[in-house]
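Input/output pair, single chain:
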Amino acid sequence: MSTNMFGIEQARRIIADTDWNKNILWKGEGRFTFAMVEPTNFGIAAPDPKNGSANTKEAEYYKEYQADPESFVEKTVADWHKAVKAMNEEANIIIVPTIPNTDTEKFYDQVFMADASLSMQNDKGALVTMFSKFSNTERIPEVNMHKAFLEVIDDELLKRGYLEEKPKRIFADMPHYFEGTGDCRYDYYRGVFFAGYIDKPCRANAHKGRSDIRSHDVVANWTGAPINSIKTESPCFHIDTSTLFACETPYVFMDKNGIDKRSVEKFNNAAFRKYGLKPAEYVIELSPEEADNFAANSLYIGNHKMVVPIEAGKDFSEKVRNAGLTPIEIPIAYLVKAGGAFNCIKNPLYRKHIPGGFAAHPELIPGISA
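Output:
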């Protein structure tokens, strides 16, 4: 499959034809703002003849998708709309246009908006957007749509009165393999990033991990936020498939099987012992069933609420309650079959780095702006 046919000018033409009055679902100031894509172009790619499937979920469910692609996509779109409705109760949602599939190019993974860029306002007031460099080569064209979208969306929001002023946005292309907010999670409680990596990111190793550790220094330099490098292990190819932060509190949900053993100890030091916390008290371990249903890919949406996969089960919802949050159970089984869930399908546009996090600034918890 060619990966260089869909270019930036094609993306700009699609963006220029977009009805933003229809695609902007605005709730108000002081809320998360998520970019999302309706998965009408969704699918599960055939295993690459040389490198196989990009992740273990795709390998497991490719035949099911092939048996009835139309029904599979219909069910995926239905789940996605339920997720959007739940997320829009607290967050602003902006629907980015879908890239049409062609005979030669398929954009099955575009729905996983988290991965093609990362945006954050640094402590100097600049809103930095870093565009990803995919080691999973099938996804390279998605970056062009992110670029075209982010070239115009600040102005579209400003002229509708949704922004008080246009942010000082800086664009940067990541020089090393890096997959955006999916593999680089910001922990609001601590005010730091936890980011995934593997030693040799390439298409052949896509099921193990995607990012180059050298990209982490680039993120830290642009955003001013400290970053902790965590080595991922199959089947958890992104850190957001193994690790979930409670946002308002120090609790962390974790599938330890998706993290290198030495990185688990490093994580415990950075997330807990540094703050005088005991990992045994604040790590909420995920059961195999919860991990398999992408519980770690749940999404905090504000106002003490977290959108969680209903498939992860009642026990997981109870764990969320025990961490001080309200679970909103939504079905997402068909997206999970391609390797993603709620955190994967959104990209936060206006996050601000909070030095020290909520641990140092508890007064900021009610007024998250992201």
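The mean pLDDT is 95. Residues 69-87 form the longest helix (19 residues).
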